[in-house]
Amino acid sequence: MNRSNSPETGFIDPSGANAEAIRHLAEDVLDQLLGQLGAAEDRSPLPDESAVPAGTIPESPRSQTDLLGDLETIVAGSMNPAHPGYIGHMDTMPTTVSVLGDLVASAINNNMLSVEMSPVLSELEVQLTETIASEFGLGPDAGGVLASGGSLANLHALSVARNHAFDVQGGGLTGLAREPVLFTSEVAHTSLQKAAMVLGLGTDAVVAVETDADSRMKPSALNHAVEQAERDGHVPFCVVATAGTTTTGNIDPLPAVSEIADEHDLWLHVDAAYGGALVFSGAERGRLDGIEAADSVTFNPQKWCYVAKTCAMALFADTDVLQEKFRIGAPYMRGDDAIPNLGELGVQGTRRAEVLKLWLTFQHLGRDGLGQLIDESYRLTAAVRDHVADHDTLELASEPEMNLVCFRAAPDWCPPDERDALNGRLQRYLLSEQEIFVSLPTYRDARWLRVVLLNPFTDEATLDRLFDGVDVFLDADGP
Predict the structure, then answer these.
(1) Where is this region: Disordered (predicted)?
(2) Is the whole model's pTM more than 0.70, yes or no?
(3) Is there a contact between 401 and 467 (Cβ–Cβ < 8 Å)?
């Protein structure tokens, strides 16, 4: 094939003819990137402004020097989760091996659609999802499929739940005499409404269940909602419990929720996108007691397991149900009785090999490394909670159950209707003056400061700087 219009390093020559030029390009990119990442503390957690390269397509190849210059600008203007003061979202610096795993996965460019197109990685994904399902106690027939994000994993799980309940994978919903509904807490992730919309149920089919003061679903309210839906002529089919709410990090009472699901013969899905990582902590895994009763689980290792984005999974207690209620065969692909074509079982067909960076992270950190990171997050969480308790001017949104603390400034001298604006100014001050980024979510119709203690390099000094900044700001902003 004529490649005269492409640069010498446009592709890696399989004969090795351009190996030296490729090596120089790779080394230059890697050296520049490592230089920027190794000095991440010198850049703000969020840039003040970002220069965006032109989105045009040049007529001819640009020089390596120009490309490196633009790459440097892109990194400099990007979110900087490696900074120890970046404690505002469920984003973290990834493990080194997951970054390298992404490089390898991109280089070999296997397609997780089928075993034929990803022979080693398909089998590895099957084995690893079975292993993780066993960590949750889902039983000997459990397994699952990786997905590019928790929203897709939730969509996958609810699709199987719907098809299992109504046998509509062929004929669709139009033949149903009554409308299906599912139940989840009023603070559950919005991906559930999106899934209901995509599945033809409509967002109104997601019934919001009242929560307690700590954002946990009330079992009595759930039972009442199910019974009310039945009286209204709807057909309940699924309950979604949350293990790690997005804003406050709370966990629904899984044993009580599973009892109600059993009583009403409902599919139980647990959205453990964030909190699922607790299974790797000997000290904290008991917080997930009851998850073993789930029919399906969403888990997102790209969060508390430090795997580079994206890496999520939908796990099922009975993979036979997944096969029977979701699989669409691809006649253009060779089948394998031992290992399924994962693209036939998942929402996505063509998919990159996220399993490689996940497997590498588990191998590199081991249970001891993962468990320690989770336990250290709890130690810092306790310190933040104590700081808030020691400040008369601060209040908690809920009692922390994970490594999230949601609090706000609520001094007596600030009228309640002005506290949202006060906390907005405080967030901006912490970023500009203390180089600490905390997010500012809306929770129960008010603005709160949210701290997420994920970064392995965040320490007590970071927290001292945070609360010293709070004190300075409130002293200056007060009466």
Answers:
(1) 36-63
(2) yes
(3) no
pLDDT tens column, 299-330: 999 999 999 999 999 999 999 999 999 999 87
Please write the tens of the pLDDT for every residue from 98-129: 999 999 999 999 999 999 999 999 999 999 99
Domain 104-362 sits in CATH at 3.40.640.10
**50 pLDDT exceeds 90?**
no
Tell me, what's the pLDDT at 247?
94
pLDDT, tens digit (0-9, with 9 covering 90-100), for 257-266:
999 999 999 9
Domain ranges of the chain: 104-362, 365-477
